[in-house]
Amino acid sequence: MSGERPEGHERHAATGTRHAAWFAPRIRADLRHQDTLTASFAIIGWACYILAALMLSWVVGALIHNDIIARSVADDVASAPAAWPAESRRKALESARDYNNALQTVFAGRIPADAQGADGAPLETADGKYANTLDVDGNGAMARLRIPKISVNIPVYHTTLDNVLDKGAGHIYGTAMPVGDAHTYSVLAAHSGGVQGMLFTRLNEMKRGDVFYLDVLGGEHGYRIGDIRTIKPDQMEHTLQMLRAQYANDNATVTMVTCTPIGVNTDRLLVTGVREPIPDNIPPADTQSDGLLIAIGVGLACFLVAILAAILVTRWIRHRRREQRASSGHGITVHG
User: Fold this and answer.
1) Would you call 259 a catalytic residue per the annotation?
2) Which sites are catalytic (predicted)?
3) What homologous superfamily is domain 84-283 in, according to CATH?
4) Catalytic residue (choose from 158, 171, 191, 221)
5) Which of 171, 259, 302, 335 is catalytic?
6) Which of 54, 181, 187, 270 is most deeply packed, by most CB within 10 A?
7) Confidence band (pLDDT; 50, 70, 90) for 153?
8) Can you give the pTM of this predicted structure?
9) Of 138, 269, 103, 136, whose CA–CA distance to 215 is shortest?
């Protein structure tokens, strides 16, 4: 009879009502029509999508968390010497200068990057004088490194051991303490592309003429980049000695090192800067900003506003259509 529904229709309808409302409409439609294979693939796809989103969220969260910690430590390292008596700061600086002056005698002009002792341990782990010189916070931090253009604000620690590079930049043993004196050459290394934080991930964005800053014992030192090069790992010691001879004759010079390309790490990116006076040649660090990060923030804000506007307009259009259908329905007269 015309008033009866087919048995299959009732079965399909009953099947559809048993599934959770959060299923995507396409999946619910497949299940109502007993297309379980298609629905299964769709469910697996959604599960993979959710898993990938969770993993990405974890990575981003870890990066942000570690960056916040590094910035906090760096700020503490920069501000700590301000609370010291002037005599303590003078003695710390004098000790660092004595260490730098002795480098030529101790290492005969070499930069023993990654050198090991007879027992196979890194040389720096057995050098107590090195560890105790310019230890600002008692945990091995010697300075704060800021690169405003790429939003870097991290502590600089003694050595480049794994536990050090997990939390900031490391000072390469055998190079000068970065106190900013003429004729000194310091080398700093940090990871890129890891969950330890952004660190030197964006170092490849730096160009000649860009600036970076080191805060040491209460002083802010500005450096202008003049040399950028990529080398193989086995060229490290020779290249560092060449850069020292080329740039560190008259001014303090600092080279920043990281692995490249990100995720491959077959080469080393070296970015070298020479100290120039603040504010005559280099503006103070607090006046500089990350233009790319600002642009991304503005773009993201505009994107979110556009999405919100689209949602509001869509809801308004649907509301208007419902009102129009309701008003047109009220105008119909039914004759018995």
Assistant:
1) yes
2) 191 (proton donor/acceptor), 259 (acyl-thioester intermediate)
3) Sortase (2.40.260.10)
4) 191
5) 259
6) 187
7) very high
8) 0.75
9) 136
